[in-house]
Design brief:
single chain, 189 residues, three-stranded antiparallel β-sheet, 17% helix, Pif1-like_2B_dom, DNA helicase Pif1-like 2B domain-containing protein, P-loop_NTPase
């Protein structure tokens, strides 16, 4: 019921199905890889993006590969480390960091979250298309920038965000990339 002071909220899954099946049923079909690289989904809230990304990833016709990060904490007092269970540590995803569970498929568009090599075009925000998934590295081709089309290898690296809101240093060994289907306000699909 919509009243004077009431706003009806569409859930992100309903929004995704509305986009995919009703408004734009061919949004992912009958288009070249180049056209797919230019598609976007706008998301008003960053918190909705992971679910939209998972739904888009499910549409890509390839085998899903899950990468789990190796997370640890460093404290001034080493005895404090025991106060933080692994489930809690793994649930943390500070801004600009990949999640503990990073799903990917060949054909997915991903964004680099760290500067790896500026001269090679591997800068924060660079978009890439996944070509091959290996245990300890990902092969991808650049879809943005002056090095567009070039194949690169992205390794797992140690990431340590500086977050003043947590009383320890989080260390995360994971690929410095994030699945891109929707981000706030919009990026490549």
């Amino acid at each position: 019921m919509v009243g004077k002071n009431t706003i009806t909220k569409l859930s992100f899954i309903n929004l995704f199905h509305l986009l995919h099946f009703n408004l734009y049923p061919d949004i992912f079909n009958n288009c070249t890889p180049e056209e797919m690289e230019k598609r976007v989904i706008l998301s008003p809230k960053n918190s909705d993006c992971p679910a939209i990304n998972e739904n888009v990833l499910n549409i890509i016709p390839d085998v899903l590969k899950m990468y789990l990060s190796t997370d640890s904490v460093s404290c001034n007092n080493e005895e404090e480390v025991q106060n933080y269970p692994f489930e809690f540590i793994n649930s943390l995803t500070p801004s600009g960091m990949p999640p503990h569970r990073l799903n990917s498929k060949v054909g997915a568009i991903v964004m680099l979250l760290r500067n790896l090599s500026i001269s090679q075009g591997l800068c924060n925000g660079t978009c890439m298309k996944v070509q091959r998934l290996h245990e300890h590295c990902v092969e991808a081709s650049l879809v943005t920038g002056s090095k567009r089309g070039r194949t690169v290898i992205i390794p797992r690296i140690k990431l340590s965000p500086s977050d003043a809101n947590i009383p320890f240093t989080l260390n995360k060994l994971q690929f410095p990339k994030l699945l891109l289907s929707s981000l706030l306000p919009a990026l490549l699909l």
